[in-house]
């Protein structure tokens, strides 16, 4: 059985108000982020105005900015709805939004050895009765490429097979803690090299992760199925040739890596 952990937002975050806005952040970053909201109105506006060495593309543009007081580079994204009703719902979420859940899942996954970028904090902005807009701040991971870029041959120094070998331990760790990621797509897996140049896979967008107390085999199968669907979709979208033998081998290896 998987551990079936329960994600509850708790320490290490501090809470406070900046005008009509709510800021939740690690204590070391709280004052610095509060000052930026006060000056630029939103964290996303502050990051967008920062000199960009590399802007990242997700559901929207993710900006990289420096928090000099904390000697840290951070990635700042504005939350948007996905799916069929995205053109209607846009960037407005029912309070308290998905941000508290993401913060809790981030703390829990990292505590149990699942690699994911550290969540620094988030800000909520009023957007009508009971509605909020959200900016999320995470620690920036330099020199990293998502799995989609690898499959497209656009990741310098990272080939498909080495990326797949790095992804297997990530899938095993997710299964071990009972973490089902319903949006485990090629853009939500980050390939990162450590100081010794060993390649590791990190998981992104953990706000949708749920923790289930079921057999680890079931968790692994669900995550592998979702990732496989994304791999196929990615190849169709960019007209890449899909090697079915390779994909079958990857799925077999992933299922065999079940802890």
Write the layout of secondary structure elements.
Layout: E1 14-18, E2 21-25, H1 27-40, H2 43-48, E3 56-57, E4 61-67, E5 72-78, H3 86-89, E6 93-94, H4 99-111, E7 119-126, E8 131-139, E9 145-146, H5 147-151, H6 160-176, E10 179-180, E11 189-193, E12 199-203, E13 210-211, H7 216-237, H8 244-256
Helix pairs in contact: 6-7, 7-8
Mind explaining what this structure looks like?
The strands form three sheets. Strands 1, 2, 3, 4, 5, 6, 7 and 8 form an eight-stranded antiparallel sheet that branches. The chain is globular. It has two domains: 14-139; 145-256, Transferase(Phosphotransferase) domain 1 (Transferase(Phosphotransferase), domain 1), CATH 1.10.510.10. The protein is built from eight helices and 13 strands. It has helices at 27-40, 43-48, 86-89, 99-111, 147-151, 160-176, 216-237, 244-256, and strands at residues 14-18, 21-25, 56-57, 61-67, 72-78, 93-94, 119-126, 131-139, 145-146, 179-180, 189-193, 199-203, 210-211. It has 259 residues and is of the alpha+beta class. The chain starts with 13 loop residues before the first strand and ends with a helix. Helix 7 runs antiparallel to helix 8 (244-256).
